[in-house]
Structures are given as structure tokens and as C-alpha cells.
Specification:
Elements (H helix, E strand, L loop, with lengths): L1 E9 L3 H12 L4 E4 L15 E2 L12 H9 L6 E3 L5 H13 L2 H29 L10 E5 L2 H16 L5 E3 L1 H7 L9 E5 L3 E2 L2 H14 L3 E3 L4 E7 L2 E7 L2 E10 L5 H7 L6 E12 L9 E3 L4 E6 L2 E10 L8 H14 L8 E12 L5 E4 L6 E5 L9 H12 L16
Parallel strand pairs: 1-2, 1-12, 2-9, 4-16, 5-14, 12-19
Antiparallel strand pairs: 3-8, 5-7, 6-7, 10-11, 11-12, 13-16, 13-17, 14-15, 15-16, 18-19
Helix pairs in contact: 1-7, 1-10, 4-10
The structure holds flavin-adenine dinucleotide.
């Protein structure tokens, strides 16, 4: 069976679903194919920060040295599985090349523009569509037990201040006034007032509902197996449910985008970066704010009637096994900052693959190789944050309008 389609989106995570929404708002006929259920990938169990102010790319000066130190610690939040994988070697090389001050300072305004505009779009989605996804704009509190890491983070806050990011540096009393539910080991904090948070799977499903209401056709359990091409065009997308013949194709398959790109004969500078989350029933001593625990880089979000922790970044390919030692380190770190963390009622342990680009910036652009292919991927640690703005940019690129933010400028990718 062959289906004639106008726009075909591959991937039913936050990026694909937001692209579907903004394209249908624009009046474009859209079909979205997803190999599993909608929101089965990285968009499901993440920690739900709208990190409006998290603007220092992962590839930053000092990251390589820090990464090497972490590699020697089996409980550390970072791990690379040693293996002969040329894509990984190439990614590490490009990542290393991006770990310099000039590149970092070039990335900050782009990441900030994306998160600021996206935060406004989350609010507009609530106002215009009446969506309910547990959105709260309360900020984020970064907590420190160690003087050295606090001083380093305060330097980062000074750097971000140059770009207009507001922060408040807090002593122990200031921290306790803002968040009484912390232990006495917490010596300092930095508050980022512009962060917000949400329940990620609820968000994706709500946007999917709104997109469907406006005419998007969703085809779950439909896996893209490959493509047929003719010159500089994709002429057909081959799936487990027949061939689609779209006018335009949006590649929004998260960490799997690089596999599909390879199928099309080009490489995306991306690696799957595995992370874990553990979700508990909300305890009586639940923190009221999202927290970042500096030790082990643990992220904490109170989400409705749940409390979720996430951590770790493992470059292990698509190996989805769960390293219980790293999970235990996450729980142990939580117990060093927060009271009563031992007898929580477990709801779910989850792992997901962040689509990590080598320079820490997302890839949102028309492909250089195929004129009817739009790339919307590589969002790394910020895909939820950048979901709505990415959807809007995709709709602008497809309409041949100048995009609000030109993420691709100066970067040669596909
Ligand atoms: C532990 C953890 C914590 C995180 N915390 C945050 C946070 O607080 N804030 C934030 O902004 N971001 C966070 N992130 C990052 C965020 O989750 C991702 O950047 C985002 O979900 C990526 O969305 P996506 O739509 O690109 O990918 P995904 O959500 O992975 O969606 C891609 C979809 O494509 C489908 N697919 C793949 N191959 C095919 C195929 N061949 N055919 C059809 N469909 C296919 C997959 O099944 C999947 O559903 C976190 C990630 C992790 C792992």
C-alpha cells in the first residue's frame, strides 16, 4: 500500500509532536509515524525541567578533564563504554574540538534564545489550547555541599549574567528560607528564577491531542525501515505499514535519527547518551522546588503527586541495561541533601537515550543532502525545554519563511 502524504514526521517524541502541532496550526496536512507508542522514547521519563537559563553547552572548557576524572569513578554520573566505534570516536573528537571558550560563548546566545522563546510558547499552549501538563514556573535551586564546586558554579552564573540570565547566590540561611526541606550539609545555593517544570509525558500527550484535534494523523507502531530516493529528493518512506510518498519529511526520531540518516547515506554528529530516572510517590517532606544536587549531577523535580530524580550520562550506544551501582549513587546523593529519602515508595525506574549532538546545539534545518528533508534532532539534555520552539521553527522552515532563530548559522551538518 502506498500513501500520498504532504508532510511526514518520523518520531512521536516531544520534537515530532510539537512539529506536528505547529504545522497543523499553519494549516499543513501532517502524518506522524512512530515505531512504538507516542512518547515512548526519551521524552517519557525525563525530569521535566524547562531549563530557561541552562545555556552553557555540554561541550564547554574543562569538560574533557572532568569527564576523564569521572571515568575513573564507577559510581560517577558519566561513563563511556570502551569500544571500537568510529562514530563514537568521531563524535568525541568533534566534542573535544567544541570544548573551548570561543565555541561555548557562541552557543550560549542560541541556547538562551531557544529556551526563552520556548518558555513563552509553553505558556501560550496553556492559554490558547487549554492544555494541562503540570506546568509550574517556580525556578530552580542548585544546591552545593562542597565549596569548590559552588565557586565554580558561581563563576558560571557570572558568565551567564553577561548574557542576561538572572541568578541569586545564596548562603545556608538563604537556601533554607527558599527550601526548608534540605539537610544541614547543604552550604550554598544558586537560584535560577526563570526555570519552569512540567510532567513530560503528560505534555507530549496533551500536545498530540491538540495536534490530532487540528487534523494531524498519528500512526503509532509504524516503524520506518528505510527510504527510496531520487536525486536530491526522498521519494518514499518505507515503513512496517507500507510506503509513504510525502512531499516533505521531518526527521525527529531522537537518538535514532542518526541511524535513519545513515540509511539515507549521510552522518549526523550525534550519539545516544543514556540517562536514568527514578520516580517515587511524593513524600510528606517533598521539596517544593526543582533542585539540582551538585554531587553526582542529580536533578530532582516534584511533579504532581510524584517526586522524580534523574542522573547519569552514559555513552554506551543503544545498550539499554540499567547500571544499578549508578542508580544507587543517585539515591545516595539525594540522601545527602534531602531528609527522609530512604523509605520512599518506588513508582518507576526508567532509562532513556538523549539525542546528544557533538557541540551541544540542536540540529534544526533543511538537510543539505535532500531538499525535502528537515532535520529536527540532537537536543541532548534540553529536548523538553526546546520542544515548542523547535516545532515552530520546523513549521517556518517548511513554509520557507525565515526561522525566528537560525540555529544552523555557521554550522555545516548534513
Ligand atoms: C534522564 C534524562 C533526563 C532529562 N531531563 C530533561 C529535562 O529536565 N529537560 C529537558 O529539556 N530535557 C531533558 N532530557 C532530554 C529530553 O528528554 C530529550 O532531549 C527529548 O526527549 C528528545 O526528544 P525527541 O523527540 O527528539 O526524542 P524521543 O523522545 O526519544 O522521540 C523519538 C521517537 O522516535 C521514535 N523512532 C525512532 N526510530 C524510529 C523509526 N525508525 N520509525 C519510527 N519512529 C522511530 C522513537 O520510538 C521515539 O518515540 C532528559 C533526558 C534524559 C535521558
Amino acid at each position: 500500500m502506498t500513501k500520498q502524504e504532504d508532510i511526514l514526521i518520523i518520531g512521536g517524541g516531544v520534537i515530532g509532536v510539537c512539529a506536528a502541532y505547529y504545522l497543523t496550526v499553519q494549516g499543513q496536512p501532517v502524518t506522524l509515524v512512530e515505531k512504538d507508542d507516542i512518547c515512548a522514547g526519551s521524552s517519557y521519563g525525563n525530569v521535566g525541567w524547562i531549563a530557561n537559563g541552562h545555556a552553557i553547552p555540554l561541550a564547554a572548557p574543562g569538560m574533557l578533564t572532568q569527564g576523564l576524572k569521572w571515568l575513573l569513578d564507577p559510581g560517577s554520573p558519566f561513563y563511556i563504554k570502551p569500544r571500537l566505534d568510529f562514530d563514537l570516536i568521531r563524535w568525541l573528537w568533534q566534542f573535544g574540538a567544541a570544548c573551548n571558550k570561543k565555541q561555548m560563548r557562541r552557543g550560549i546566545p542560541t541556547l538562551l534564545a531557544l529556551s526563552r522563546t520556548s518558555t513563552e510558547l509553553f505558556e501560550r499552549l496553556i492559554a490558547d489550547e487549554g492544555l494541562d501538563f503540570g506546568f509550574e514556573r517556580k525556578g530552580l535551586l542548585h544546591l552545593f555541599t562542597d565549596r569548590h564546586t559552588f565557586e565554580k558554579a558561581a563563576e558560571e552564573a557570572d558568565l551567564l549574567a553577561e548574557f542576561g540570565v538572572e541568578t541569586t547566590v545564596l548562603d545556608q540561611t538563604g537556601v533554607r528560607q527558599m527550601e526548608p526541606n534540605v539537610l544541614s550539609a547543604v552550604a550554598n545555593g544558586i537560584y535560577y528564577p526563570d526555570y519552569a517544570h512540567l510532567i513530560p509525558d503528560k505534555f507530549v500527550k496533551e500536545v498530540a491531542r491538540a495536534a490530532e484535534g487540528r487534523g494531524t494523523r498519528f500512526s503509532a507502531n509504524t516503524e520506518v525501515l528505510g527510504f527510496e530516493t531520487s536525486g536530491r529528493r526522498i521519494s518514499a518512506v518505507v515503513t512496517t505499514r507500507g510506503n509513504f510518498k510525502p512531499d516533505q519529511v521531518v526527521l525527529a526520531a531522537g537518538a535514532w535519527s542518526s541511524l535513519l540518516a545513515r540509511n539515507l547515506g549521510f552522518r549526523l554528529p550525534m550519539q545516544p547518551a543514556k540517562g536514568y530516572s527514578v520516580t517515587f510517590k511524593r513524600p510528606p517532606t517533598c521539596p517544593s522546588l526543582p533542585l539540582s544536587l551538585d554531587k553526582h549531577k542529580v536533578a530532582v523535580t516534584p511533579m504532581g503527586d510524584m517526586l522524580r530524580f534523574s542522573s547519569t550520562l552514559e555513552l554506551v550506544g543503544f545498550d539499554d541495561s540499567i547500571n544499578r551501582r549508578r542508580l544507587a549513587a543517585t539515591r545516595q546523593a539525594a540522601g545527602e541533601y534531602l531528609p527522609d529519602m530512604t523509605d520512599l515508595e518506588l513508582l518507576e525506574i526508567w532509562r532513556g537515550f538523549r539525542p546528544a549532538s557533538s557541540d551541544g546545539l540542536p540540529i534544526i534545518k533543511r538537510s543539505n543532502r535532500f531538499e525535502n528533508l528537515i532535520l529536527a534532532t540532537g537536543h541532548g539534555m534540553l529536548g523538553i525545554t526546546h520542544g515548542p520552539i523547535t516545532g515552530k521553527l520546523v513549521s517556518q522552515i517548511i513554509a520557507n519563511n525565515p526561522p525566528d532563530i537560525d540555529v544552523a548559522s555557521g554550522r555545516i551538518l548534513a
